[in-house]
Amino acid sequence: MSKRDYYEVLGVAKDAGEREIKKAYKRFAMKYHPDRTQGDKAKEEQFKEIKEAYEILTNSQKRAAYDQYGHAGVDPNRGGGGNADFGDIFGDVFGDIFGGGGGGGRRQSRAQRGADLRYNYEMNLEDAVRGKSVEINVPTWVSCDPCKGSGAKKGSAPKVCPGCQGSGQVHLRQGFFAVQQTCPTCQGRGQVIADPCQKCHGQGRVEKTKTLSVKIPAGVDSGDRIRLSGEGEAGQFGAGSGDLYVQIHVRDHNIFTRDGNNLYCEVPIGFTQAALGGDIEVPTLDGKARLKVPNETQSGKMFRMRGKGVKSVRSGSVGDLICKVIIETPINLTETQRSILRQLEESMGTGDEVARYRPKEKGFFDGVKKFFDDLTH
Questions:
Q1: For residue 364, what are the domain limits?
Q2: pTM (2 decimals)?
Q3: C-beta separation of 253 from 268 below 8 A
Q4: Residues 296 and 227 in one domain
Q5: What whole-number percentage of the chain has pLDDT above 90?
Q6: Cα atoms found within 13 Å of the Cα of residue 236, Cβ hemisphere only
Q7: Do 128 and 239 fall within a single domain?
Q8: Residues near 208 by beta carbon (within 8 Å), at least 6 away in sequence
Q9: Could you give the CA distance from residue 185 to residue 192 in angstroms, rounded to a whole number?
């Protein structure tokens, strides 16, 4: 007998999301679960079919294989789940109704790994480019020394929970439902502490501010993270520690702007120097450098100084320094200086003669004239 299409079994579309599939499964499970059908073999087989469809379509890898190859794409030995643990999957789906959960509860039946932590570290551009070692103080939870993280008083040890016999789960029957819940005696840990440690009060960890040395590599930028394995919060009852992530933030610089591995800066020069050309002094992160500016340089012109940027923390390649020349109009001129400028202006002539010296100006006003001429015709 050929199997029915899994989407048809659950009554959902082929592009249905996991939430919709889970909702459909709940609806059918309430109707066909063996605890409700009182030994009806036909409905039990139907529930097996529903359960199989649910398990395939909520597993992304199996669903992808099924969508591409049909039933042949999934494990043929799964069948309809002949030896299925109905209570297990039923608890997964309906555990939230009763405050418990089948598979999910077992996964939580032991002490959890400590939380990861984030530490925000702010630094200047120079240190980010060169790298440095710093010390940071991190308030966190650490393993309790007297009890070595067990939570039990020195000389004693945790005991197997009498309520769940160490499984972390208790089985309950509520009407026709057979469900399992997290053990209320040990909170799912499987162990109880009869004589708790006086320092940590049975938690296995205490609050402390740790001082850590962090080596920040050269070339880091805002948004980069440095992971310190095992330096996060210690878990409760001897569970492993989380990780610490040092989040880098590089402060704005008053001269340079960084974009990837390149640095940018604006360099103001006088208009006579821009017209005549010459060497100018520009800043770099390694000190001063000379930049040759050709004659007739226009404002906004960019000059690239290769290898004067930032060395990449990942590839090791070095960026460039891009200097943007900004021509500054002189202020606070004396009358003599004004007279010299008037003589310069007069020497350039009028009308079309000016285009020889200021071609962009003439081109702009010619374009403006054509624009207005087109409007009037």
A1: 335-375
A2: 0.60
A3: no
A4: no
A5: 41
A6: 14
A7: yes
A8: 139, 140, 141, 142
A9: 8
Shared domain for 19 and 77, answered yes or no, is: yes
Strands (E), the chain: 117-123, 132-143, 159-160, 169-174, 177-182, 191-192, 205-216, 225-228, 244-250, 257-259, 262-270, 278-284, 287-293, 302-305, 321-328
pLDDT tens for residues 241-265? 999 999 999 999 999 999 999 999 9
133 and 245 co-located in one domain: yes
Return d(Cα 254, Cα 290) in angstroms, integer: 20
- The burial class, CB within 10 Å (0-12 / 13-18 / 19+), for 366 is exposed
Share of the chain above pLDDT 70, in %: 86
The dihedral built from the CA positions of residue 90, 96, 98 and 99, taken in this order, carries a sign that is positive
Residues 151, 234, single domain; the answer is: yes
Q: Residue holding tokens 């049909």?
A: 70
Locate 355 and state its tokens.
């285009």
Q: Whole-angstrom Cα distance, residue 65 to residue 165? A: 40
> Does any domain span residue 108?
no
Q: Are residues 236 and 125 located together in one domain of the fold? A: yes
Domain contains 275 = yes
Residues 6+ apart with CB under 8 A from 192: 158, 159, 160, 161, 162, 185, 186
The token pair that represents 185 in the structure block = 């005696």
Tokens of 194: 């009869």
Rounded to the nearest 10 degrees, the angle between the axes of helix 41-57 and helix 18-32 is 170
Q: Do residues 302 and 211 both lie within one domain? A: no
245 has which bridge partners?
A: 118, 227
Count of domains forming the chain: 4
Banded pLDDT at 202 (limits 50, 70, 90):
confident
CA 245 – CA 223 distance, rounded (Å): 11
How far apart CA 239 and CA 282 sit, in angstroms, is 56
pLDDT band at 110 (very low <50, low <70, confident <90, very high): low
